[in-house]
Structure formats: structure tokens, C-alpha cells
């Protein structure tokens, strides 16, 4: 399952008694206020739809010709228009979170450089601060989101900045491989790191959803954890993505090989190249994977998140 872009939902209300109060739209006979207090822009007899530049500002009108505010998703990109409908550019603090929009108004994700400083925006566009694990490497950002240093480059700076304890918490566990004595030893085509913090967070998020739905939380099973990590590493080392291995095996045959007893079992797999905890959202937004996580028959789970070959590979192995 490849990278998925997630929906934002926020709300805003336009309050305007007359056309003049809707700054900075300017008083114009072409602006019309609708019965539901939204605004439209009329050019002759035609009501404007889509993007429109009016007095050097960009506005967006939906299929009904009504001006949009708040978040706008158009042709695969996110935009943000303020309460007056004006498309935003550059840095914007929205509900306490900083986002960055380019000169075309498109919300940016990943690394961005501004005034010779580097920042990182996660998959939802939110600016990151503190210590962050990005593609298997640790980076530190100050409270303004500016990149400080990688701990590999400047341990003294991290000590002086008080980041050491956070680095220890976020670091992955580096290892050459994940092997189970009863299963074939895996090759070392790619160096890997076990993302223990991501595994723990995914477990927490999943049980939160189960509890909210009135289901019993799952418990971690150490053998299932080893199988899940083995599967994630197996897919990395052999460079494939499937429930069945190139040799025709799957997690059920591995469970039998180690003598694991169960009557019901399931598996979720996913990967991305930008954020390990986002694997949970990828599963949650897929009906089949969500059904596994919310299956009342399951009582135990193992979660294995491995970084390697420039990706995060995740596996959930369920059992009753």
C-alpha cells in the first residue's frame, strides 16, 4: 500500500452584514451574497466556478459558484483560503499548526528551504519541531521548526540543547537482520532498523480505536512480534510486497513452523517512505485492513516496523 494523502476537516464561518464588510474583497456589483450567507462572483450572466483572480487575489468557487474558505482540495493538491476567501501563500498558522504554501498556493510536504533554513513538513503538511525520525535518520528542529543538526553530526550541540533524552527515545534499534531460529535466516541485502517507537505508537492507536468501539484491547504477543518483524524484513531484503513470499510461503506457514497455536489469524502489511507511524493511517483508511484491526475474534497482535531500502515496511500479525 503506497503513500496516502489524508483528509483535513476544519471549519470556518464568514460573518458579513454587507458586501463592504467582506474585506479585502472590495465593494463590487459583481459580488453577490447568497441566502446561506456564502458569496458568489458574477461576470455578466455567468457565475464564476473554480479558481478566479480578482483584484490580484485568488479565490475558489465550487461547482455551485459559492466561494470556498478553509481547506480546499483540488486536482491532488491542498490549498487554504482565509475567512475572506483569499488563497494563502507562504507560512500560515492554522488552528495552532504551521503550514507552508508555495507561490501557487499549494501546501508543501517534506523538506522545504526558506531563507536558507531547512524545515520539515509531515505528510499532513504540519511543520515539525523537536526530535524527528525521518526516513530512518534522526533530525532535530528548534521551536520555530528550523533544522538544528543530526545527532550523528553534532552530539555536543544536542547535549547543550537538552535533546539527548529525546534522541534516545526516538532512535530505532539498529540491527543487521531479524532472524527466528526455526525459520530460514534472512540475507543482508539492506541494513535495517527496528522502529520500536513506531510499533508502540501504532499499538496504542489501534487499541484506542478498539476501546472507543467497545471492543477489548489487543495484547502484544512476543512470538507474533517476531513473526511480524521477520515478515517486514523479509519483504525488504527480497524487495517485494505481498502476503505471499516469492517462494510461496506466508505468515501462517511461519506460525506453524515455530509451533504457534491458533485457530484464527490475519495479517496487515503496508509501506511508505516518509513516516513510520503513518502506516497506521494507511491501514485505518483501508476497509479490509481496518476490519482486521477491529476484528473482535482477535485477542493478540504482533507489530513489526522495519526501516531499510529507503522505506518503512510495516506488518501486523493477529491471532486469537
From TrEMBL:
<keyword id="KW-0645">Protease</keyword>
<keyword id="KW-0677">Repeat</keyword>
<keyword id="KW-0732">Signal</keyword>
<feature type="repeat" description="Cell wall-binding">
    <location>
        <begin position="68"/>
        <end position="87"/>
    </location>
</feature>
<dbReference type="Pfam" id="PF19127">
    <property type="entry name" value="Choline_bind_3"/>
</dbReference>
<feature type="repeat" description="Cell wall-binding">
    <location>
        <begin position="88"/>
        <end position="107"/>
    </location>
</feature>
<feature type="signal peptide">
    <location>
        <begin position="1"/>
        <end position="29"/>
    </location>
</feature>
<keyword id="KW-0378">Hydrolase</keyword>
<dbReference type="InterPro" id="IPR014044">
    <property type="entry name" value="CAP_dom"/>
</dbReference>
<feature type="repeat" description="Cell wall-binding">
    <location>
        <begin position="108"/>
        <end position="127"/>
    </location>
</feature>
<dbReference type="InterPro" id="IPR018337">
    <property type="entry name" value="Cell_wall/Cho-bd_repeat"/>
</dbReference>
<feature type="domain" description="SCP">
    <location>
        <begin position="204"/>
        <end position="312"/>
    </location>
</feature>
<protein>
    <submittedName>
        <fullName>Serine protease</fullName>
    </submittedName>
</protein>
<dbReference type="InterPro" id="IPR035940">
    <property type="entry name" value="CAP_sf"/>
</dbReference>
<dbReference type="GO" id="GO:0006508">
    <property type="term" value="P:proteolysis"/>
</dbReference>
<feature type="repeat" description="Cell wall-binding">
    <location>
        <begin position="48"/>
        <end position="67"/>
    </location>
</feature>
<dbReference type="GO" id="GO:0008233">
    <property type="term" value="F:peptidase activity"/>
</dbReference>
<dbReference type="Pfam" id="PF00188">
    <property type="entry name" value="CAP"/>
</dbReference>
Amino acid at each position: 500500500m503506497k503513500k496516502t494523502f489524508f483528509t483535513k476537516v476544519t471549519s470556518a464561518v464568514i460573518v458579513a452584514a454587507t458586501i463592504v464588510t467582506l474585506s479585502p474583497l472590495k465593494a463590487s456589483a459583481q459580488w453577490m451574497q447568497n441566502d446561506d450567507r456564502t458569496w458568489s462572483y458574477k461576470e455578466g450572466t455567468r457565475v464564476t466556478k473554480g479558481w478566479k483572480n480578482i483584484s490580484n487575489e485568488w479565490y475558489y468557487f465550487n461547482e455551485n459558484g459559492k466561494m470556498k474558505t478553509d481547506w480546499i482540495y483540488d486536482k491532488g493538491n491542498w490549498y487554504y483560503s482565509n475567512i475572506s476567501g483569499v488563497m494563502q501563500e507562504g507560512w500560515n498558522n492554522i488552528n495552532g499548526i504551521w503550514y507552508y504554501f508555495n507561490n501557487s498556493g499549494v501546501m508543501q510536504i517534506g523538506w522545504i528551504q526558506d531563507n536558507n533554513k531547512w524545515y520539515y513538513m509531515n505528510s499532513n503538511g504540519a511543520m515539525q519541531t523537536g526530535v524527528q525520525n525521518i526516513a530512518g535518520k534522526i533530525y532535530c528542529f528548534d521551536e520555530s521548526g528550523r533544522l538544528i543538526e543530526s545527532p550523528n553530526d553534532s552530539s555536543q550541540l544536542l547535549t547543550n540543547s537538552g535533546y539527548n533524552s529525546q534522541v534516545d527515545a526516538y532512535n530505532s534499534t539498529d540491527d543487521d537482520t531479524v532472524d527466528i531460529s526455526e525459520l530460514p535466516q534472512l540475507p543482508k541485502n539492506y541494513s535495517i532498523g527496528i522502529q520500536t517507537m513506531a510499533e508502540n505508537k501504532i499499538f496504542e492507536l489501534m487499541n484506542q480505536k478498539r476501546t472507543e468501539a467497545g471492543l477489548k484491547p489487543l495484547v502484544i504477543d512476543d512470538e507474533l512480534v517476531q513473526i511480524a518483524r521477520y515478515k517486514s524484513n523479509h519483504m525488504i531484503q527480497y524487495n517485494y510486497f505481498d502476503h505471499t513470499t516469492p517462494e510461496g510461503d506466508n505468515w501462517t506457514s511461519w506460525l506453524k513452523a515455530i509451533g504457534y497455536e491458533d485457530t484464527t489469524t490475519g495479517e496487515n502489511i503496508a509501506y511508505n517512505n516518509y513516516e513510520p507511524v503513518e502506516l497506521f493511517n494507511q491501514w485505518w483508511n483501508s476497509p479490509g485492513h481496518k476490519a482486521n484491526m477491529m476484528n473482535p475474534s482477535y485477542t493478540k497482535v504482533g507489530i513489526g516496523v522495519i526501516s531499510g531500502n529507503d522505506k518503512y515496511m510495516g506488518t501486523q500479525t493477529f491471532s486469537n
